[in-house]
Design goal:
It contains 6 helices and 3 strands, in the order H-H-H-E-E-H-H-E-H. By secondary structure, the chain is of the alpha+beta class.
């Protein structure tokens, strides 16, 4: 390419960019149809008509108040479920023994298991449990499944129950 043809090419790009920029900045903000199709008829429905139309198609309609009330009820049920598996089972010598069903899923770590056991009042410290597991070298031998553990079990028993 010669220098004149290169300058002409650059000038063309500059002019094209300027025109596109001007149309973008100063052009209409909304696109308008240029076709000869009829515009879609917009049907204005009242609130009651909308509810009737949606419920006839199987939708359930709630007001914001009803929705929030339903969410609160669901949260209360979930809290009751979370507390239900962890219950005081027996009293021996004035000591309360807690039992829980621990579900270990794929991807959980021994830290997660320790924290879950601590939350269920089975062990005192999840971190100490993790350190013991790591000291034994079984942190990678966690078995997925559901296990029944209780606070009366020793750390050895818990580890042998949950780990391979």
């Amino acid at each position: 390419m010669t220098s004149n043809s290169l300058r002409s090419f650059a000038a063309g790009i500059l002019i094209a960019t300027s025109l596109i920029g001007a149309v973008y900045l100063f052009g209409p903000s909304e696109a308008k149809s240029t076709g000869k199709e009829e515009p879609a008829k917009v049907e204005k429905l009242s609130e009651d008509e909308m509810v009737k139309k949606l419920t006839s198609k199987g939708y359930v309609i709630h007001t914001e108040y009803q929705w929030n009330k339903q969410l609160e009820a669901m949260n209360e049920k979930q809290e009751d479920k979370d507390e239900a598996p962890n219950k005081k089972d027996e009293k021996t010598d004035g000591k309360v023994i807690y039992k829980t069903m621990l579900t270990v899923s794929t991807g959980m770590t021994s830290i997660d298991v320790g924290n879950a056991l601590e939350k269920a009042n089975i062990i005192k410290s999840g971190l100490d449990f993790y350190k013991e597991v790591e000291k034994r070298g079984v942190e990678n031998d966690l078995r997925p499944g559901t296990f029944e553990v209780e606070s009366g079990m020793t750390t050895d028993e818990i580890i042998s129950t949950i780990f391979k």
